[in-house]
Amino acid sequence: MEREICSIVSNDRVAKDIYKLVINSKSIIKEASAGQFLHIKPSLNYDPLLRRPISICKADSVKGHIMLLYRVCGKGTRLFGGLGQGDCLDIIGPLGKGFPILKDKKAAVIGGGIGIAPLLELCQNLNSPDIYMGFRDEVYFVDEFIKHSGAFFLYTEDGSRGSKGYPIEALARNISSYEVVYACGPKMMLSKVKELCEANSVECYLSMEERMGCGVGACLVCACESSEENYYKKVCVDGPVFNSREVKFDDRYER
Ligand SMILES: Cc1cc2nc3c(=O)[nH]c(=O)nc-3n(C[C@H](O)[C@H](O)[C@H](O)COP(=O)(O)OP(=O)(O)OC[C@H]3O[C@@H](n4cnc5c(N)ncnc54)[C@H](O)[C@@H]3O)c2cc1C
Ligand code: FES
Description:
Elements: E1 2-15, E2 18-24, H1 28-31, E3 37-40, E4 52-55, E5 58-60, E6 65-71, H2 75-81, E7 88-95, E8 107-112, H3 119-125, E9 130-135, H4 142-146, E10 152-156, E11 163-164, H5 167-174, E12 180-184, H6 187-199, E13 203-207, E14 223-225, E15 232-234, E16 241-243
Parallel strand pairs: 8-9, 8-12, 9-10, 10-11, 12-13
Antiparallel strand pairs: 1-2, 1-7, 2-6, 3-4, 3-7, 5-6, 13-16, 14-15
The chain binds flavin-adenine dinucleotide and FE2/S2 (inorganic) cluster (FES).
The site of flavin-adenine dinucleotide (FAD) has 21 residues, from strand 4, strand 6 and helix 2.
């Protein structure tokens, strides 16, 4: 883990409230792998105080560029949105445990909304996985994924692009073709992916999201329920990527 002041190469809006940020990195990039995250101070002063976790979307070690994809939803990400080329960010990373890269297994990757962010670096490192993606309405960034996919399944909730509905529907039809499934997205989707994979004895890795404080295992803000009775895992150091059998979702997310 390194602390680095990174200059911004570009920060472009790619859809409503969605931005692609590219930063220069000399040290963090050396250790970065798919599924890990960066803990970023939204400003160079103390307001807001806490860093915000953002996943590594793509790491280009030749150029020394790390690409991030983020959704503006509150004070911190709104500050990110106001930054431009040449501005600097105070970053700690890479943090957490990423995705195991199981190149020899037939893989499916499923993402929902901004949850697609950590999946691009993963897809690049796998052998043309089948990709399942879902968005509420506006679709973004799919061309980046299609380059690295076998079959590609696109869903929108309103049916404006791809099929109407949710990508889990197509994954459920094809699940017997896969040896491993990787997922990131809303908890409802992750809970269904876990249930589907476990019912079909398919290995499954989920990238979990919880609010974070320290990002390094000291504050317990990010605790999530583990499948072991009365035991919690820290998303920042035990995850964010977990084998589906390690985590439990509360009743709200289970049918
Ligand atoms: C490991 C990890 C990786 C992440 N990767 C990305 C990414 O690649 N791109 C991206 O856009 N976002 C990502 N997030 C979520 C991102 O960290 C939050 O959206 C961000 O911290 C919100 O900060 P804010 O100051 O803008 O919003 P705040 O003002 O702090 O909150 C605004 C709203 O967002 C909710 N919120 C805040 N943090 C989270 C969270 N962690 N999970 C769910 N809801 C939250 C709040 O409850 C509130 O409703 C990731 C989160 C984690 C834990
Ligand atoms: S964010 Fe502090 S322990 Fe995970």
